Amino acid sequence: MKYEFYIAKTHLKSRGGVFKRVIAWISIVGICIGVAALVIVMSVMNGLHIDLRDKILKATPDIMVLKFHNEPIDNYTALQKKIEETPGVTKASPYIFTKTIIKGNKNRMDGIMVRGELELPDVENNIIWGEYNTGKNGIVLGKNLADILGVFIRDTVTLYGFPYTKSLRLFNLKAKNFIVRGIFDIGLYDFNSSLAYTSLPLLQDLFLFGDRVTGIEVEIDNIDNADKIAKSIEKNIGYPYYVTSWKELNTNLFEALALEKFTMFVLLTLVIVVAAFNIVATLLMTVIGKTREIGILLSIGASPSSIRKIFILQGLIMGIIGTSMGVVIGWTACKLLSKYQFIKIPADIYNISTLPVSMQLTDFLIVSVATICISLLASLYPAWRASRLEPVEAIRYE
After folding, report:
1. Could you tell me if 49 and 69 lie in one domain?
2. How many CB atoms lie within 10 A of CB 109?
C-alpha cells in the first residue's frame, strides 16, 4: 500500500473533532442520497417507457408495409412471402385498417378505426369481457368505445363505410351489423376509445375490397431493431411500397420521454454537486488542521504531487463510499418497489396502478462514474492548496 493512500485513509479515520467528522459524513450521506434518488428515478422512468411501449405494441404492429397514396395491395400473398425472407422477420400477415363510422344503442355514433385481421392479434390477451371472436359477424371493441356506444356483450352495432370504388357517391354508403363478442382494455385511452377488431373477410366485404388489403403487418425477433429491419424490407420490396415501424410512428412520444429522463438526471445530479461542495469544505478544513503534518511530510522529502495525491485520494474515498451506499440503497428500493408494489397511483388517471420499475446496468454505471468524477473534481482545489504550502512556514506557526 502506497503511503499516500495510507495517509488519506488515516485522515478519514482520525478524530479531528466532532464538527469535522459530521461534515465528512454529511458529504458522504449527501452523495448517497443523490445516487440513490438518481438510480430510483431512472429505473422508474425506464419502467414507464417499457410499460408504454408494450401497451402501444399491443395495438400497433412492429412494422407496417403500406402502398403509396393508401392504395389497396392486390397481390399481397407474394408480397407477404417476400417480406418473410428478410432477416429478423418472424411473421407477416395481411390486414385492413381504415376509418369508419359505428352506431350503437340509442343511435349513439362515433368515428373509429376498425381493424380486420386473419390471425389473433396481441389484444386477445387483454379481453376483459367476453372473448376474442370475430366469426359470424363478430366484433371486439375497446372498453371506452363500448361505454360511448352504450353496448355490451351480445349487443348489435352497425358499421358504415364507403366501399372502395372509383365512383364515390353518398348512396354507395354501406351498412353492416356486427355482434359485440368481446371488450378489451389495452391500458391506453386513445386505443380503448377508438379501436375495434373484426375479421379480414368481413371488412373486405363491407368496403368491397375483393381480395385486397390495406397493408401487411410484420412481427420481428427484436423490436429494438425495428428501424433497421424496416429499411431492409423497404430495400427488398421497393416501389410502390413504403415501410414504417412502431418507433417511427411514436417518435415524438418516446423522444419526449427520453428528454424527460435526461432532465431528471441533470436535476438530481445537482444534489450530488451540493454534496461535492461539502467534500471541498471537509478537505479544506483538513488542510488547515493538518498544516503542521503537511509541512513535516514536505520537509522529509515528500513531493508536492504526493501531497496532492493524498487529498485527491481522500476525496475519492468519500465519493466511492457515498456512491456504493447510494447504489445499494437504490438497488434495494427498486427491488422492493418491483416486488411488493407498495406505491399506489390512481389507475383511472395514469393507466397504471403501481410504479413500474426496470433497472438497467448502464444507468447504474453512468450514475456511479459521474458521481466519482464529481468527487474527484471537488478534491482538486483543496489538494492544490495543500501542495502549495511551504514546509518552513507550515511548521513555524504550528
Report:
1. no
2. 14
The last residue of a domain, from among 231, 246, 261: 246
Question: Where among 246, 275, 303 does a domain terminate?
Answer: 246
Q: Mark whether 193 and 146 lie in a shared domain.
A: yes
Looking at the structure, do residues 27 and 101 belong to the same domain, yes or no?
no
Q: Are residues 37 and 150 in the same domain?
A: no
Question: Which residue range(s) make up the domain with 220?
Answer: 61-246
**Beta strand spans in 185-274 (E):** 195-199, 215-220, 241-245
381, amino acid identity: Y
Overall average pLDDT of the 137-163 stretch: 91
Relative to beta strand 127-130, strand 174-184 is: antiparallel
Largest Cα span, the chain: 107
Q: Are strands 241-245 and 63-67 parallel, antiparallel or unpaired?
A: antiparallel
Q: Give the residue among 378, 237, 392 at the shortest CA–CA distance from 317.
A: 378
Backbone angles phi, psi at 107, to 5 degrees: 60, 25
Spatial separation of the C-alpha atoms in residues 329 and 310, rounded to whole Å: 29
H/E segment holding residue 93 = strand 89-103
pLDDT tens, residue by residue, 2-50: 767 777 777 666 555 566 677 778 888 989 999 999 999 999 999 988 8
Same domain, 85 and 198: yes
Is residue 268 within 8 Å of residue 371, measured between CB atoms?
Answer: no
Window from 144-153, 199-208, 389-398 with minimum mean pLDDT: 389-398
